[in-house]
Amino acid sequence: QPNFQHIETDVDFKQGPFEKVTLIVDLESTCYPFDTWLGPNPTNPPPAGHNWPADCDAFDRNFEFTLDEPTQDGEPPAIELVRAITPFGGPEHFEIDITDVANGIAPGTHRLRSHISTWSDGAGQVSGSNGGWFVSAKIQVSPGPAPRNVLAVIPLYNGSHGAMSPDAIDFDVPAGTTSTRVEYRATGHGGVFPSPGCTQPGEEFCRRDHRFFADGTQFDRQTPWRDDCKDLCTRKTFTTAGGGSFEYCEENPCGAIASVEAQRANWCPGSVTPPINFERAEYNTAGQHNFAWTITPVADGGSWRVSAVLFAFGD
Q1: Are residues 31 and 118 in the same domain?
Q2: For residues 97 and 102, what is the distance between their CA atoms, to the nearest angstrom?
Protein backbone atom coordinates (compact mmCIF):
# COMPACT_ATOMS: atom_id res chain seq x y z
CA GLN A 1 0.00 0.00 0.00
CA PRO A 2 1.75 3.23 -1.12
CA ASN A 3 2.39 5.99 1.42
CA PHE A 4 1.43 3.98 4.50
CA GLN A 5 3.26 6.05 7.07
CA HIS A 6 2.75 4.58 10.53
CA ILE A 7 2.25 1.37 12.44
CA GLU A 8 0.99 0.86 16.00
CA THR A 9 1.04 -1.87 18.58
CA ASP A 10 0.04 -2.33 22.21
CA VAL A 11 2.83 -2.56 24.79
CA ASP A 12 2.11 -3.85 28.30
CA PHE A 13 4.60 -2.35 30.75
CA LYS A 14 2.99 -4.29 33.61
CA GLN A 15 3.98 -3.22 37.12
CA GLY A 16 7.32 -1.55 37.86
CA PRO A 17 9.63 -0.40 39.15
CA PHE A 18 12.20 -0.85 36.39
CA GLU A 19 15.95 -0.60 36.73
CA LYS A 20 16.36 -0.03 32.99
CA VAL A 21 14.10 0.02 29.94
CA THR A 22 15.50 0.33 26.42
CA LEU A 23 13.76 0.82 23.08
CA ILE A 24 15.80 -1.07 20.46
CA VAL A 25 15.10 -0.25 16.81
CA ASP A 26 16.36 -1.66 13.52
CA LEU A 27 15.47 -0.16 10.16
CA GLU A 28 16.08 -1.84 6.81
CA SER A 29 15.53 -0.86 3.18
CA THR A 30 15.37 -2.74 -0.12
CA CYS A 31 17.41 0.06 -1.69
CA TYR A 32 20.58 -1.41 -0.20
CA PRO A 33 22.73 -3.42 -0.62
CA PHE A 34 23.00 -2.47 -4.28
CA ASP A 35 23.78 -6.05 -5.37
CA THR A 36 20.09 -6.92 -5.08
CA TRP A 37 19.21 -4.68 -8.01
CA LEU A 38 22.43 -3.42 -9.63
CA GLY A 39 24.51 -6.60 -9.35
CA PRO A 40 25.01 -9.35 -11.95
CA ASN A 41 22.14 -11.48 -10.59
CA PRO A 42 19.53 -9.00 -9.31
CA THR A 43 16.76 -10.39 -7.13
CA ASN A 44 14.77 -7.14 -6.91
CA PRO A 45 15.26 -5.23 -10.18
CA PRO A 46 13.41 -1.97 -10.90
CA PRO A 47 10.26 -2.25 -13.01
CA ALA A 48 10.70 -1.42 -16.69
CA GLY A 49 11.37 2.29 -17.17
CA HIS A 50 12.02 2.87 -13.45
CA ASN A 51 15.28 3.84 -11.78
CA TRP A 52 14.64 2.17 -8.41
CA PRO A 53 13.17 -1.06 -7.05
CA ALA A 54 9.45 -0.55 -6.53
CA ASP A 55 9.62 -1.03 -2.73
CA CYS A 56 12.69 1.19 -2.21
CA ASP A 57 12.36 4.61 -0.57
CA ALA A 58 15.62 6.33 -1.49
CA PHE A 59 15.10 9.50 0.55
CA ASP A 60 15.76 10.61 4.13
CA ARG A 61 12.52 10.77 6.13
CA ASN A 62 11.33 11.73 9.58
CA PHE A 63 11.42 8.60 11.75
CA GLU A 64 9.73 8.85 15.15
CA PHE A 65 8.45 6.70 17.98
CA THR A 66 5.69 7.98 20.24
CA LEU A 67 3.62 6.61 23.09
CA ASP A 68 -0.13 7.08 23.52
CA GLU A 69 -1.15 9.15 20.51
CA PRO A 70 -4.43 10.97 21.27
CA THR A 71 -7.53 9.42 19.74
CA GLN A 72 -9.88 12.38 20.20
CA ASP A 73 -9.82 16.13 20.80
CA GLY A 74 -8.91 17.22 24.29
CA GLU A 75 -6.60 14.32 25.07
CA PRO A 76 -2.94 15.02 25.96
CA PRO A 77 -0.37 14.94 23.16
CA ALA A 78 1.72 11.84 22.64
CA ILE A 79 5.00 11.29 24.45
CA GLU A 80 7.79 11.34 21.88
CA LEU A 81 10.36 8.68 22.78
CA VAL A 82 12.86 9.34 20.00
CA ARG A 83 13.29 11.63 17.00
CA ALA A 84 15.39 10.20 14.20
CA ILE A 85 15.83 10.64 10.47
CA THR A 86 16.10 7.64 8.18
CA PRO A 87 19.22 7.33 6.07
CA PHE A 88 19.01 7.91 2.34
CA GLY A 89 17.83 4.38 1.50
CA GLY A 90 19.94 2.49 4.01
CA PRO A 91 19.78 0.63 7.33
CA GLU A 92 19.78 2.21 10.78
CA HIS A 93 20.07 0.95 14.35
CA PHE A 94 19.58 2.79 17.61
CA GLU A 95 18.89 2.08 21.27
CA ILE A 96 17.06 4.64 23.41
CA ASP A 97 16.86 4.69 27.21
CA ILE A 98 13.19 5.12 28.14
CA THR A 99 13.56 4.14 31.80
CA ASP A 100 12.14 7.38 33.18
CA VAL A 101 9.13 7.13 30.88
CA ALA A 102 8.39 3.54 31.89
CA ASN A 103 8.67 4.37 35.60
CA GLY A 104 6.50 7.49 35.28
CA ILE A 105 3.52 6.33 33.23
CA ALA A 106 0.59 4.32 34.55
CA PRO A 107 1.22 0.55 34.69
CA GLY A 108 -0.47 -1.54 32.04
CA THR A 109 -1.05 -1.30 28.31
CA HIS A 110 0.06 1.68 26.23
CA ARG A 111 0.02 2.31 22.49
CA LEU A 112 3.40 2.51 20.71
CA ARG A 113 3.53 4.19 17.29
CA SER A 114 6.31 4.24 14.71
CA HIS A 115 5.99 6.91 12.03
CA ILE A 116 8.03 7.42 8.86
CA SER A 117 7.01 10.20 6.48
CA THR A 118 7.63 7.95 3.48
CA TRP A 119 6.30 8.94 0.06
CA SER A 120 6.33 7.10 -3.25
CA ASP A 121 7.14 8.23 -6.79
CA GLY A 122 4.65 6.50 -9.03
CA ALA A 123 6.96 6.89 -12.02
CA GLY A 124 9.89 5.36 -10.15
CA GLN A 125 12.31 8.06 -11.26
CA VAL A 126 13.56 9.59 -7.98
CA SER A 127 12.39 6.83 -5.61
CA GLY A 128 10.44 3.58 -5.70
CA SER A 129 6.89 3.50 -7.02
CA ASN A 130 5.74 1.78 -3.82
CA GLY A 131 8.61 2.76 -1.56
CA GLY A 132 8.74 1.75 2.07
CA TRP A 133 10.82 0.53 4.99
CA PHE A 134 11.10 -2.48 7.28
CA VAL A 135 10.94 -1.51 10.96
CA SER A 136 11.72 -3.84 13.85
CA ALA A 137 11.36 -2.65 17.44
CA LYS A 138 11.52 -4.27 20.84
CA ILE A 139 11.52 -3.02 24.40
CA GLN A 140 14.07 -4.59 26.71
CA VAL A 141 13.01 -4.43 30.36
CA SER A 142 15.13 -4.99 33.47
CA PRO A 143 12.95 -5.03 36.62
CA GLY A 144 14.51 -3.59 39.74
CA PRO A 145 14.94 -0.40 41.74
CA ALA A 146 14.21 2.68 39.64
CA PRO A 147 17.24 4.98 39.22
CA ARG A 148 14.96 7.98 39.86
CA ASN A 149 11.65 8.47 41.65
CA VAL A 150 9.52 9.57 38.69
CA LEU A 151 6.33 11.21 39.95
CA ALA A 152 4.94 12.20 36.56
CA VAL A 153 5.61 12.22 32.81
CA ILE A 154 3.69 15.14 31.31
CA PRO A 155 3.58 15.53 27.51
CA LEU A 156 3.33 19.24 26.70
CA TYR A 157 3.42 19.35 22.90
CA ASN A 158 3.86 17.05 19.93
CA GLY A 159 3.40 18.54 16.47
CA SER A 160 4.68 20.97 13.86
CA HIS A 161 4.37 24.72 13.45
CA GLY A 162 5.58 27.49 11.19
CA ALA A 163 6.29 31.10 12.03
CA MET A 164 3.58 31.20 14.71
CA SER A 165 4.77 29.34 17.80
CA PRO A 166 2.13 27.87 20.14
CA ASP A 167 0.86 29.78 23.13
CA ALA A 168 2.39 29.01 26.52
CA ILE A 169 1.41 25.52 27.67
CA ASP A 170 0.05 25.12 31.20
CA PHE A 171 0.74 22.05 33.31
CA ASP A 172 0.51 20.98 36.94
CA VAL A 173 3.54 19.82 38.90
CA PRO A 174 2.60 17.15 41.47
CA ALA A 175 3.19 17.47 45.19
CA GLY A 176 6.51 16.09 46.37
CA THR A 177 8.44 17.24 43.30
CA THR A 178 12.04 18.17 44.08
CA SER A 179 13.45 18.36 40.53
CA THR A 180 12.23 18.38 36.94
CA ARG A 181 13.49 17.91 33.41
CA VAL A 182 11.99 19.22 30.17
CA GLU A 183 12.96 17.32 27.02
CA TYR A 184 12.62 19.55 23.94
CA ARG A 185 13.08 18.06 20.48
CA ALA A 186 13.08 20.26 17.38
CA THR A 187 14.03 19.75 13.72
CA GLY A 188 13.47 22.09 10.76
CA HIS A 189 11.81 20.99 7.51
CA GLY A 190 10.27 22.31 4.26
CA GLY A 191 10.14 25.97 3.28
CA VAL A 192 11.15 28.18 0.38
CA PHE A 193 14.42 29.85 -0.56
CA PRO A 194 15.96 32.37 -0.22
CA SER A 195 15.34 33.08 3.42
CA PRO A 196 17.53 34.74 6.07
CA GLY A 197 19.90 32.36 7.83
CA CYS A 198 19.65 29.60 5.21
CA THR A 199 22.58 28.01 3.39
CA GLN A 200 20.48 26.07 0.84
CA PRO A 201 16.82 25.77 -0.21
CA GLY A 202 14.66 24.44 2.62
CA GLU A 203 14.12 25.16 6.31
CA GLU A 204 16.35 22.18 7.05
CA PHE A 205 19.32 24.35 6.04
CA CYS A 206 18.36 27.36 8.18
CA ARG A 207 19.76 28.56 11.49
CA ARG A 208 16.87 29.67 13.68
CA ASP A 209 16.67 31.43 17.02
CA HIS A 210 14.89 29.34 19.67
CA ARG A 211 13.94 31.14 22.88
CA PHE A 212 12.57 29.37 25.94
CA PHE A 213 10.28 30.66 28.68
CA ALA A 214 9.34 29.29 32.11
CA ASP A 215 6.30 30.89 33.73
CA GLY A 216 6.57 33.83 31.34
CA THR A 217 10.28 34.57 31.82
CA GLN A 218 12.90 33.79 29.18
CA PHE A 219 15.58 31.49 30.57
CA ASP A 220 17.53 30.31 27.53
CA ARG A 221 18.25 30.96 23.87
CA GLN A 222 19.75 28.47 21.42
CA THR A 223 20.29 27.84 17.72
CA PRO A 224 19.78 24.08 17.24
CA TRP A 225 22.16 23.01 14.47
CA ARG A 226 24.02 19.88 13.38
CA ASP A 227 27.50 20.34 11.90
CA ASP A 228 28.52 16.67 12.20
CA CYS A 229 26.54 15.19 9.28
CA LYS A 230 29.79 14.60 7.40
CA ASP A 231 30.55 11.89 9.97
CA LEU A 232 27.69 9.87 8.48
CA CYS A 233 29.44 9.45 5.14
CA THR A 234 32.03 6.69 4.97
CA ARG A 235 32.85 6.75 1.26
CA LYS A 236 32.60 3.50 -0.67
CA THR A 237 32.66 2.56 -4.36
CA PHE A 238 30.19 0.20 -6.02
CA THR A 239 30.80 -1.44 -9.39
CA THR A 240 27.65 -2.26 -11.35
CA ALA A 241 27.03 -5.37 -13.44
CA GLY A 242 27.67 -3.28 -16.54
CA GLY A 243 31.15 -2.31 -15.37
CA GLY A 244 30.36 1.24 -14.32
CA SER A 245 31.03 2.50 -10.82
CA PHE A 246 29.92 5.23 -8.45
CA GLU A 247 30.90 6.57 -5.05
CA TYR A 248 28.42 6.59 -2.19
CA CYS A 249 28.12 6.98 1.59
CA GLU A 250 27.96 3.66 3.41
CA GLU A 251 25.60 5.08 6.05
CA ASN A 252 23.45 6.90 3.45
CA PRO A 253 23.88 4.85 0.28
CA CYS A 254 21.25 6.52 -1.93
CA GLY A 255 22.03 10.13 -1.07
CA ALA A 256 24.19 12.56 -2.98
CA ILE A 257 27.38 12.90 -0.97
CA ALA A 258 27.14 16.69 -0.77
CA SER A 259 23.59 16.43 0.55
CA VAL A 260 24.46 13.78 3.13
CA GLU A 261 27.34 15.85 4.48
CA ALA A 262 25.50 19.19 4.56
CA GLN A 263 24.93 20.87 7.92
CA ARG A 264 21.27 21.03 8.93
CA ALA A 265 18.64 22.41 11.29
CA ASN A 266 19.32 20.02 14.16
CA TRP A 267 19.25 16.75 12.22
CA CYS A 268 21.38 14.56 9.99
CA PRO A 269 20.28 11.77 7.62
CA GLY A 270 20.62 8.41 9.34
CA SER A 271 20.88 9.83 12.85
CA VAL A 272 18.98 10.34 16.10
CA THR A 273 18.40 13.94 17.18
CA PRO A 274 18.91 14.02 20.96
CA PRO A 275 16.63 16.21 23.07
CA ILE A 276 17.66 19.55 24.49
CA ASN A 277 17.22 19.13 28.25
CA PHE A 278 16.28 21.84 30.72
CA GLU A 279 16.22 21.61 34.51
CA ARG A 280 14.40 24.62 35.91
CA ALA A 281 14.07 25.49 39.59
CA GLU A 282 10.81 27.31 38.80
CA TYR A 283 9.15 23.97 38.12
CA ASN A 284 10.21 22.35 41.41
CA THR A 285 7.23 23.86 43.25
CA ALA A 286 3.94 21.97 43.16
CA GLY A 287 1.09 23.64 41.30
CA GLN A 288 0.43 25.23 37.93
CA HIS A 289 3.26 26.38 35.67
CA ASN A 290 3.77 26.97 31.97
CA PHE A 291 6.40 26.40 29.30
CA ALA A 292 6.77 28.26 26.02
CA TRP A 293 9.16 28.73 23.13
CA THR A 294 9.49 30.84 20.00
CA ILE A 295 11.31 30.03 16.75
CA THR A 296 12.24 32.93 14.47
CA PRO A 297 12.31 33.54 11.61
CA VAL A 298 10.72 30.59 9.77
CA ALA A 299 10.66 30.59 5.96
CA ASP A 300 7.34 30.67 4.10
CA GLY A 301 6.17 27.09 3.86
CA GLY A 302 8.74 25.96 6.41
CA SER A 303 7.96 24.21 9.67
CA TRP A 304 9.60 22.90 12.80
CA ARG A 305 8.72 19.48 14.14
CA VAL A 306 8.65 20.01 17.91
CA SER A 307 7.87 17.97 20.99
CA ALA A 308 8.21 18.77 24.68
CA VAL A 309 7.81 16.47 27.69
CA LEU A 310 8.20 17.33 31.38
CA PHE A 311 9.46 14.80 33.93
CA ALA A 312 8.79 15.43 37.63
CA PHE A 313 11.05 13.68 40.15
CA GLY A 314 10.82 13.22 43.91
CA ASP A 315 13.40 12.24 46.50
Answers
A1: yes
A2: 10
